[in-house]
Amino acid sequence: MSVPPGGSTPADNPPPPARGDWPEDRYAGAVTDVPLLSRTAHDRGHLARSLPDPAQGRPVRVLRIDERRAAPVHEGTAGPELVYEERAAWPEGAIYLGEADGVAYAALRTPRALSVAGRPVDSWSGLREVGGALGDLDAGLLVQAVGIIEWHERNRFSPITGAATTIERAGWVQRDPDSGREVFPRTDPAVIMLVHDGGDRCVLGRQAVWPAGRFSILAGFVEPGESAEAAVAREVAEEVGIAVTDVCYVSSQPWPFPQSLMLGFVARATTEELRIDHDEIEEARWFSRDELRAGTGPQALPPTVSIARHIIDRWVAGEL
């Protein structure tokens, strides 16, 4: 369950000062206009995808991804930046990510190192740590690189015959050598929803594996033959035992852990009593807007790189 990068605070509703040991971002309502992690800053056209060498002889910027799905990061003057390796030719085993401003980008699975092609690395960090602080291009390339590398590592054998696949089209196709069938990257749709009472209260829940005191909105996977809206109603009923209506789409966010696309919604509850399925979640409660603004509700909210936090903040600010 997740949220978007940094935004601005409305002048008429500043967040309260931080208290205790909790960071200021536990207060909702501060992030109201936030871009979600996206790939819109770069392009990988059909022609480039089909070429043996997508770089076509041009320089290539390679983004290394380690076994923990982290990338090399340098702390620049304007914030964290990904560290790319400049290559004169296409690296063996690289996956084509796309092109931006005439530069080809690729991802390569490698061990982490203290430097990349002579450039210093301050840290190896993943999407959860730096996704919200990166620029649009870096964030988009990182989420794409993590997602496609995850797909390759989880799908090394054909689902049709079980044969080991071969990699084609610069990493965007795996071929079953026995049947000749092509296997393409997949994405699992999931719904994530803020359930409100039509007034000033919403339902937040927590999983037992989360840090103590952290609450978020509800979420779950879309099942075969099910619409996203039906999945919202089913998941809410299963997790907290209430019925909903007025299911409205808000926005989406790729979340490659391992290969989800989070579809964000709001929905209005038609019943109030919570009947919690403890196999799904540990705890769920109604919280008011004032509690979320003041930080007197949950001890922690989702990080600001997640769509969950994006939806919570927009609802608290009255935008949804």
Automatic annotation (TrEMBL):
Family, as annotated: Belongs to the Nudix hydrolase family. NudC subfamily.
- The kind of enzyme this is, by top-level EC class, is hydrolase
Is RNA-binding a UniProt keyword of this protein?
no
| Cofactor(s) named in the record | Mg(2+); Zn(2+)
Entry's Gene Ontology molecular function annotations: metal ion binding; NADH pyrophosphatase activity
Residues of the region (Disordered) are: 1-29
Tell me the Gene Ontology biological-process terms attached to this UniProt entry.
Answer: NAD+ catabolic process; NADP+ catabolic process
Protein name in the entry:
NAD(+) diphosphatase
Keywords for this entry? Hydrolase, Magnesium, Metal-binding, NAD
Q: Which NCBIfam families match?
A: PRK00241.1
Enzyme Commission code = 3.6.1.22
Which segments of the protein form a coiled coil according to its record? none
- Quickly give the catalysed reaction: a 5'-end NAD(+)-phospho-ribonucleoside in mRNA + H2O = a 5'-end phospho-adenosine-phospho-ribonucleoside in mRNA + beta-nicotinamide D-ribonucleotide + 2 H(+)
Q: Name one Pfam family in it.
A: NUDIX
What PANTHER family does its record include? NAD-CAPPED RNA HYDROLASE NUDT12, NUDIX HYDROLASE, NUDC SUBFAMILY
Keyword Electron transport among UniProt keywords: no
Its gene name is nudC
Q: Which GO terms describe its cellular component?
A: cytosol
Nudix hydrolase domain span:
185-311
InterPro entries given in the database record: NAD-cap_RNA_hydrolase_NudC, NudC-like_C, NUDIX_hydrolase-like_dom_sf, NUDIX_hydrolase_CS, NUDIX_hydrolase_dom
The signal peptide here is none
